[in-house]
């Protein structure tokens, strides 16, 4: 079974000046189970929009998004929220940790609806894996930026997802931390047979992937708009 199958996907946005902008028009894009893919492309080309559609945070105008066999576009908003929690791990560029909660509480939140909640030790195991067992009870403001990103990765893995989406996860960390964050993500995907789609602007990061896709190549909407 494919981790992700996209067919005839179109996404448009209202433009502030009137009319609509076709941001994405993707006839076919697939990721196999356990496959790791880097997504590169120009700024404003629609990479984050594509990730948001796959995560069910946005809905397409038309088309199909099938994740581990489930058709996302047939689910209600609440159904998409639940499905996202159980099947998708999302590592945001800006981490999105909840500031009032400690590291381990943030990781536990990642397993609330996921498959990881049956395992009470998983949150601590994941923090240990990202090298932060001794920071479990620190809040995000008490952690370095690289440490916060590692907590965000632990949280994304917590629900035992089928697909990990990562939006430039190393953009806000220093080069040494970036290396360890990337090692950690690759290693975790391999250990859990997890498929991954990672947006990056960095050719150095992209070179670490066997498969690199350029959004401009798969997106027929590239550089034209309609009103
Ligand atoms: N809610 C929205 N309403 C209108 N236009 C939007 C909206 N969200 C995104 N866009 C437009 O869609 C296009 C794609 O945005 P997106 O954030 O997906 O690009 P990106 O490839 O991730 O860019 P970057 O690499 O700079 O982060 C942009 O032209 C943007 O202006």
TrEMBL record:
It comes from Novipirellula herctigrandis. Keywords: ATP-binding, Hydrolase, Lipoprotein, Nucleotide-binding, Transport. The keyword Hydrolase applies. InterPro entries: AAA+_ATPase, ABC_transporter-like_ATP-bd, ABC_transporter-like_CS, ABC_transpr_LolD-like, MacB-like_ATP-bd, P-loop_NTPase. CDD domains: ABC_MJ0796_LolCDE_FtsE. GO terms for cellular component: plasma membrane. This is Lipoprotein-releasing system ATP-binding protein LolD. One of its GO terms (molecular function) is ATP binding. Residues 4-227 form the ABC transporter domain. The keyword Cell division does not apply. Its EC number is 3.6.3.-. It holds the Pfam family ABC_tran. SUPFAM superfamilies: P-loop containing nucleoside triphosphate hydrolases.
């Amino acid at each position: 079974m494919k981790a992700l199958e996209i067919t005839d996907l179109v996404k448009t946005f209202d433009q502030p000046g009137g009319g609509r902008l076709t941001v994405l028009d993707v006839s076919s894009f697939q990721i196999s189970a356990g496959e790791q893919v880097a997504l590169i492309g120009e700024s404003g080309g629609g990479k984050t929009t594509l990730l948001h559609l796959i995560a069910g945070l946005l809905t397409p105008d038309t088309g199909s998004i099938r994740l581990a066999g489930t058709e996302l576009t047939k689910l209600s908003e609440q159904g998409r929220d639940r499905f996202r929690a159980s099947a998708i791990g999302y590592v945001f560029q800006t981490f999105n940790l909840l500031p009032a909660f400690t590291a381990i509480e943030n990781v536990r939140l990642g397993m609330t609806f996921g498959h990881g909640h049956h395992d009470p030790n998983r949150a601590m195991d994941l923090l240990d894996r990202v090298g932060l067992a001794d920071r479990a009870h620190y809040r995000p403001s008490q952690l370095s930026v690289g440490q916060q990103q590692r907590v965000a990765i632990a949280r994304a893995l917590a629900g035992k997802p089928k697909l990990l989406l990562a939006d430039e996860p190393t953009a806000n960390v220093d080069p040494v931390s970036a290396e360890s964050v990337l090692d950690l993500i690759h290693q975790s995907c391999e250990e859990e047979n997890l498929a991954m789609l990672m947006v990056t602007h960095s050719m150095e990061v992209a070179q670490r992937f066997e498969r690199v896709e350029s959004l401009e190549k798969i997106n027929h909407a590239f550089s034209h708009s309609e009103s």
